[in-house]
Amino acid sequence: MKKLILFALTVFTLSACDSDKPQTISVNGKYTLDIPSFLTKSELPGEEFTVQYENVLRAFHLVTIDESMLEMEQAYEDAGLSELYENNIDSYAEIVFSGIEENVEVYKKSAIADTTINGLPARLLKFNARVEGFDLYYTAAAYQGKDTFHQVMTWTLTEKQAEFEKQMEDIMYSFKEI
To answer: How far is residue 39's CA from residue 62's CA, in Å, rounded to a whole number?
Structure first.
C-alpha cells in the first residue's frame, strides 16, 4: 500500500512539474509563441483579441492582437495623425502603450525596451497596475512583422509576479513570425 501511495505521489509531482514546461502554439498559421503548458485556450470578452490563453486558478492570462500595417496607416490618415505618427514599430508601440496607461491605473513601470526578437523589431514594457481593485503585474510587447503589427500581453496578480515573471518574459522573447 505504501508503494502505491508513493507511486501516486511521484506521478502527481512529475505531472505537476510537466505543466510548467512550455508548449509551442501556432496562431492562425502566422506566428508561434512558447507558452506554459498549464495555460488553456479561452474566450475572454473582446473581439479584438486574436487568441487568448489563461489559467484562472493560477491567475495567469495571455492575449494577442494583430493589426494590418496597411490598416494602421489608413487609421493614421483618417484621424489626421500621419504627420505625428509614422507607420513603424516606434509609433505603434507608443500608441499601444499609452492606450494601456489610459485604461488602467499604472503605478509602476519599466522603461520601454527597444530590441529585436527573432529578427523582428520589438518594444517591451513591464508594469504594475490597479484594475477593478486588483493589483496586477503585466508584460506587454509590440512587434513589427512583415505586414502586420502584433501585440502580446500577459498578466497575473502582483503577489504572483515573482512566481511567473520569468515565464512571462520567456513568452515575449519566443514570438516568431512564420
So the answer is: 9
Hey, what's the cell of 111?
Answer: 522603461
Give one word for 59, left, alpha or beta, with left for phi > 0 and alpha for psi -120 to 50. Answer: left
Matching residue, cell 505537476: 16
List the chain domain ranges: 22-177
Q: List the grid coordinates of 178.
A: 512564420
Residue 63's Cα: distance from chain center in Å? Answer: 6
Q: What is the pLDDT of residues 113-145, one digit of tens each?
A: 999 999 999 999 999 999 999 999 999 999 999
CATH number of the domain located at residue range(s) 22-177 in this protein = 3.40.1000.10
| Helix ranges restricted to H, the chain | 2-18, 69-78, 89-103, 161-174
DSSP3 helix / strand / coil % (the chain, rounded to 5): 35, 40, 25
CA distance 101 to 104: 6
